[in-house]
Design a protein that fits this description.
homodimer; 388 residues; alpha/beta; TIM Barrel; 38% helix; globular; GH (chains A, B); Glyco_hydro_5 (chains A, B)
């Protein structure tokens, strides 16, 4: 892409996160899709999933994203996208439709393999909370590669394809203990053996995926690697390899900064993000860097210390401070511009996320979480249109 | 309301129309909610309805409608809204939430009782296609009044309430044969005894509802009557009554004009709608008139004669002519402005509808039907913002 990436994630559509579509989990004890499929009768699980997929993201959303001036969507897909991992339901028909929408409305798709069997990170969005064993299961590592390969075979030549990200957010040591704090396993026995993913494993997995994909993809299609939550670990890897058209994906959330004893103030966030822009500029010298996930969400505007992004499906927060409408708009517009300026030290940004179905009016505990949804950021005028 | 009504219908949410959310009907032979509830196992029906209601209209939609500058939503509700008509599922919790959203975002709600047991019109949106027997069943007429009364008791004092429309689109003789052509009954035995609703019945029903509602509603809340598809039948009724704060609702669709051997051209539509504006101005001398349903949809921009609005769930149309993007925008912007100017000869307008979940890209038969959705009209720039 010749211009900067101005992108948005289609989170919560084909890969579920309970907090983004809580009604899908109504009446169950499930915190993730693994247990949702276990807890519901098969016909009801099927009905919920099919209605969700038909409604959560539609043609209208691609139309609107394009009309706002965005040029790319990152599309998280689960490892069972091809429908070969019962009881989970394949989603390839939805991906096919998404490519037709993207091409009709002139935006690109970054396919993002967001989950792996037994999970690469233990997040709810990895498919099963508190479990992180995939990397220790060679057959499942091979299965994951087969999904990457089949995605390339099916979509490699589509004009709407920007590229393929071979694995989302592998939890290396820097993130592992935080994952354990935020996402306790429902079945500790199933979590036994979970461990951080090593960089040596990750380097090898990425090399294998590159060797698999490069011959299948036209030269203009990108192969993307997530940084495993440590952008400092990649200089030798890229300098010692002879990769063509690869991009490094880094995810930067204000709530991650907050976990490092960060001051919960606008000025502090601005400084941190500006500094991170300088870091991106340096890394971008040896590999193009996209900030593939980021958000306006922070504890200052939420009015309560969220301990690194704990949300109301996990814990109720009382006594939040509500800023005035004007203060809120000023804070969000400032954070949007500061962050986009930082991300544009690399090749651009992809907001997390386009949509979430929470209700801040009838369930006031969600106050502040609505800024996760680009739809609402636009409608609330929390970004100045010239800053897209 | 001191300003003109700039409204939009929340069609297809609590009252289903198959063509507006076809996926809800996947795998069934049902053409309406009556048979959807019969054709699906109870748990699957429940799952589909609850997911649909939680997703089709949300807080974000109220936020967006307000941010666009609209000041009212018309909210169709079914006769089983209070949950006392199994197997249909009550929807009062959704209406409660909608009032909280409307009040938070500063827009008004017109509650519209859109269906009746055994139907007042035989349309799919009356709940059961091809059946129109309600008016001949005194117990069901009393039931319908009880719903009107309970709505007034529950929402009468809400600041977000604009008013209550006591019955949507009763099919008088002017519409009855067209209904029979467009909506054949699935079970002819069940349709036996269907007949047009007489104006004498309607006058009496409206008087009864007025007498029921006026003592329950604060003086500033409107009581609204649909014109039964004949705006010329109301002069004596209003002049001979001593009603306080009532409004007459007329529904005007280009496709209805087309049925009267209308020329399928932009100029012809413009003339018809301008003439109708003069009619509204005249009627508005003795009762305030709102155009409570209208749309940009027409056979000229659809590129095929739709025979009065037959849609692709009823019949596939081949060989549609596609206008250029510029021609389409010109046609729609012209039709928007011409029609809004006409409706503003009365007290304002309410577009049909805010949203529909059709896919014009993957199912090209839907080309042209997307203009039914205000969301898409805005995103496609088919209305000029100053004309809202």
């Amino acid at each position: 892409m010749n211009e900067k990436i101005k992108g948005v994630n289609l989170g919560g559509w084909l890969v579920l996160e309970k907090w983004m579509s809580p009604h899908l989990f109504d009446g169950t004890a499930a915190d993730d899709e693994y247990y949702l499929a276990q807890d519901l009768p098969a016909a009801v699980y099927q009905a919920r999933i099919s209605q969700h997929r038909a409604n959560f993201i539609t043609e209208e959303d691609f139309l609107r994203i394009a009309s706002l001036g965005f040029n790319l969507v990152r599309l998280p897909v689960p490892y069972f996208v091809f429908g070969d991992r019962a009881p989970f339901i394949g989603a390839i028909a939805e991906v096919d439709r998404a490519f037709n929408w993207a091409e009709a409305y002139g935006i690109k798709i970054l396919l993002d393999l967001h989950t792996a069997p037994d999970s690469q990170n233990g997040f709810d969005n990895g498919g099963i909370s508190g479990v992180c064993k995939w990397a220790s299961e060679p057959a499942e590592v091979e299965f994951e590669k087969s999904v990457v390969k089949r995605l390339a075979e099916r979509y490699g030549k589509r004009p709407g394809l920007y590229g393929i990200e071979v694995l989302n957010e592998p939890a290396t040591a820097a993130m592992f203990s935080d994952m354990q704090r935020r996402f306790p396993p429902r079945d500790p026995a199933k979590a036994a053996g979970s461990a951080p993913i090593s960089f040596d494993f990750l380097y090898q997995y990425y090399r294998d995926c590159y060797d698999l994909l490069r011959p299948l993809l036209p030269a203009d299609k990108v192969i993307m690697f997530h940084d495993g939550f440590d952008i400092d670990k990649w200089e030798d890897f890229f300098k010692q390899s002879d990769f063509a058209n690869v991009v490094l994906d880094t995810h930067q959330y204000l709530m991650m900064a907050e976990m490092k004893n960060h001051d919960l103030s606008l000025a502090a966030y601005e400084k941190t993000m500006t500094d991170f822009g300088k870091k991106i500029a340096a890394v971008n010298q040896y590999v193009p860097v996209v900030t593939g996930e980021w958000s306006l969400f922070n504890s200052y505007t939420a009015g309560v210390d969220t301990n690194g992004g704990i949300n109301p499906t996990q814990q109720e927060f009382g006594g939040a401070t509500h800023l005035s409408k004007e203060e809120l708009r000023h804070a969000y517009q400032t954070l949007w511009k500061t962050q986009v300026d930082a991300w544009n030290q690399g090749i651009g940004y992809i907001y997390w996320t386009y949509k979430l179905n929470i209700d801040t009016i009838n369930e006031p505990a969600w106050y502040g979480w609505d800024c996760w949804a680009l739809q609402r950021v636009v409608d609330k005028k929390w970004l100045a249109p010239q800053d897209i």
